[in-house]
Write a structure and sequence with these properties.
The protein is an alpha+beta fold. It has 3 domains: about 50 residues, no CATH class; about 210 residues, 3-hydroxy-3-methylglutaryl-coenzyme A Reductase, Chain A, domain 2 (Alpha-Beta Complex); about 90 residues, Hydroxymethylglutaryl-CoA reductase, class I/II, NAD/NADP-binding domain (Alpha-Beta Plaits), CATH 3.30.70.420. Strands 1, 2, 3, 4, 5, 6, 7, 8, 9, 10 and 11 form an 11-stranded mixed sheet that branches. Strand 1 and strand 2 form a beta hairpin. Helix 4 packs across helix 14 and helix 6 crosses helix 7. The longest helix is centred in the C-terminal third of the chain and has 26 residues. It is an enzyme of class 1 (oxidoreductase). Belongs to the HMG-CoA reductase family.
Length: about 400
């Protein structure tokens, strides 16, 4: 079908947006036809949205529906930052996709301080992705029966066998049951290797629930996602139990470096931090006892092809600032829930793949899971740099001046 005819049919409602690929020679032709139809329908030119570098054939099959182009987000670089991690070792340049003036400059300053102080130490303490279906039972006695069965090696072996039929990469680690009346919530925890793994664990959990429904007559599988996971929403369970890559970054900064680079004393940093991040967050009943971790997580997630909605979990971070015995600054950021991956999702888009290559984490790691854990350590280190710089700016009363200079 000629493009003009496609556009006419779209405008007249004879053709649906999702049907365009069926009548065009290529997916790129479909994108252009849809964009032309939207321009006609709205009277708005979309010339800039029409300029992009991703591979249309691949992206429109797995990453986006009803595509009309792309929105560009500026990418800046901060660093280098030295990281002394289990997986991330060496100097790294941090890609940050953002439109907030002063953010890259602030993180860059924090990177400089960290590198000068010898580098950030990082550890990934837990690595698991969760999905929590819910089922109904006939009685509390049956709920107790299911909970008891889940503790037996026999049933867990059967469940793991079901999981193995859905994925070659994922591994079920455990099942945590929760009962509310006649509803039984099963929070499955999986090792998803280098993938963030939401699709993987959803498909596996669906298969397990279908199996359990037959295993325990009278039960009913309600939904594969019950909000006990908890995905893309503020939830205490992610703070206490963790989700994704649970990562901690810490550094000890000599007091002379604090004074010369942050224009404040370690005592002043701790003073501001306590009243802002601890008392202020407690009074607000916040899950995030930090200054702006979400800023760095969002900017890195967008640059590196992660799901930006997971900034909700990523912002569940606790920043800590203490004095050592000799008056130096001991600074850390603990991030209990960092859902991220280096394969799948948006990691295959050309620009995002380049950012992952910049960090040396693109694709599957050797051993499996090592690249995703390396990325988690880099995100945690960059978040620490951002925290350090912002608290330093507030301690020296430079925050407003910095935003006036870089943000306007």
């Amino acid at each position: 079908m000629e493009r003009e005819e496609i556009v006419r049919k779209l405008v007249n409602g004879e053709l649906k947006f999702y049907q365009v690929e069926e009548v065009t020679a290529t997916r790129k032709d479909a994108v252009e036809a849809r964009r032309a139809a939207i321009e006609t329908l709205t009277g708005v030119r979309l010339d800039s949205i029409g300029h992009y570098s991703y591979d249309t054939e691949t992206v429109t099959k797995k990453n986006i529906e009803n595509a009309i182009g792309a929105v560009q987000v500026p990418v800046g670089v901060a660093g280098p930052i030295r990281i002394n991690g289990e997986y991330a070792q060496g100097n790294f340049y941090i890609p940050l996709a953002t439109t907030e003036g002063a953010l890259v400059a602030s993180v860059n300053r924090g990177c400089s301080v960290c590198t000068l102080a010898g580098g950030v130490n990082t550890v990934v303490f837990q690595d698991e992705m969760t999905r929590a279906p819910v089922m109904t039972v006939q009685s509390l006695a049956q709920a107790k029966e299911i909970m008891a069965a889940l503790k037996t090696p026999e049933l867990m072996a059967e469940i793991r066998a079901v999981v193995a039929t859905t994925t070659r990469h994922g591994e079920l680690l455990r099942v945590d049951p929760y009962v509310v009346g006649k509803s039984v919530f099963l929070r499955f925890a999986y090792d998803t290797k280098d993938a963030m793994g939401m699709n993987m664990v959803t498909i596996a959990s669906e298969a397990v629930m279908n199996f359990l429904e037959k295993k325990f007559p009278g039960t009913r599988h309600v939904t594969v996602s019950s909000n006990m996971c908890t995905d893309k929403k503020p939830a205490a369970i992610n703070v206490t139990e963790g989700r994704g890559r649970t990562t901690v970054a810490e550094i000890t900064i000599p007091k002379d470096i604090v004074a010369s680079k942050l224009k404040a004393t370690p005592e002043r940093i701790c003073y501001v931090h306590y009243r802002k991040n601890f008392l202020g967050s407690a009074r607000a009943v916040s899950f995030g006892f930090n200054s702006h971790v979400a800023n760095v997580v969002a900017a890195m997630y967008i640059a590196c092809g992660q799901d930006p909605a997971h900034v909700v979990e990523g912002s569940n971070a606790i920043t800590s600032a203490e004095l050592t015995e000799n008056g130096d600054l001991q600074f850390s950021v603990s991030m209990p829930s960092l859902p991220l991956g280096t394969v799948g999702g948006g990691t295959g888009l050309c620009t995002q793949a380049e950012c992952l290559n910049l960090l040396g984490v693109r694709g599957g790691g050797n051993p499996p899971g090592s690249n995703a854990r390396k990325l988690a350590e880099i995100v945690a280190s960059a978040s620490l740099a951002g925290e350090l710089s912002l608290i330093g700016a507030q301690a020296s009363h430079d925050l407003a001046r910095a935003h006036a200079k870089y943000g306007r």
